[in-house]
Each structure stands twice: as C-alpha cells, then as structure tokens.
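Memo to structure team: turn this sequence into structure tokens by end of day. - J.P.
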Amino acid sequence: MIGRISAVWARCELALAACLAVSITALILLNVVTRSLGAALFWVDELAIYAMAWMAFLGASAAVHFGHSVAVTILTDTLPLALQKIAAKLVDGIVLGFALAMLWFCWRWYAPLALIQSGFDLAAFQGATFNFVYAEPTTTLGLQKHWVWSVMWVFALGMTLHGFANLIGQGANPEDKRS
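Reply from structure team:
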C-alpha cells in the first residue's frame, strides 16, 4: 500500500517537474524576446528561478523513489551480497532520517502552531516569535515568499514517503531502478 502511494506521488512529482521544465524554457524564451525588443520583463527571471527550484526539489524527491539518486558505490560493490543489502537498508534509513529532519525544520521554520495561537495575526506572530517567514515578499512578483518556500514541505513529505517505502521494501521495482 505504501509502495503504491509512493509510486503515485513520485509520478505526480515527475509530471509537475516536467511541466515546470517546459515553463522554464518558455520563460527563458519570453525573456530573450522581450529583452531583444527593449522591453524586458524583470519578473520573468525571478519566476524562472523559482520554477527551477521547485523542479529540482520535486525531481530529487522522485529520484529517491525510483532509485536514480547519485550514489558512490565503490565500497558497497566490493561487499558480499548480504552486506550490500544491509548497506542499502542503512542508506534507506539515513535518507528517511534526513527527510524526517527536513519535516522538523519546516515545522520549526513555519511554526504553524504559533501562527494558530496568534489567531493568524501576522504582526502578533512576528512579535511573539521573531519569525518573519510570512512577511517577506518576492522581489518582482509581489508574492509572499512562504509560498515559494513551501516546496520544502512538499520535498520533505515526498522524501519521507519514498524513504519509508524503500526502507520497508515497498519502493520502486528493481527493474525501475535499472532504467
């Protein structure tokens, strides 16, 4: 069950990352055209950067599910098969630990309980916590940066799901990992 949820989530991450890759290309082309016409749209640069960040985090999370993450296997390749399996489980545990730490850091950073306790009053929240995560706008788009940074939540949740599925042996099929 967890493996199926992880697979669906990974496919959604990859589909969204692919859409973001197309949008980055379109934004860069738009930027080239508008700059050559002498009417640069400065928000295009910023949006392309944010789209690339989202694409990278979504792709990194999906890579954990499919086993396509970068790995240095010079040591583990020399181990007997039984020790290779133990090392692989150890790596899965470390990935899951990293993902859980990311969730914890996101929780501390966004401080949802403190926000609720302040009655969603941002001034009271900032005064009580000295946390300005909800107050900073983007440079040219005018969006609140916490929406851009929310990819960290998506990344941490996806990594936790994929890491847990891999640890209990319900991650991607070995055939998927080879392709």
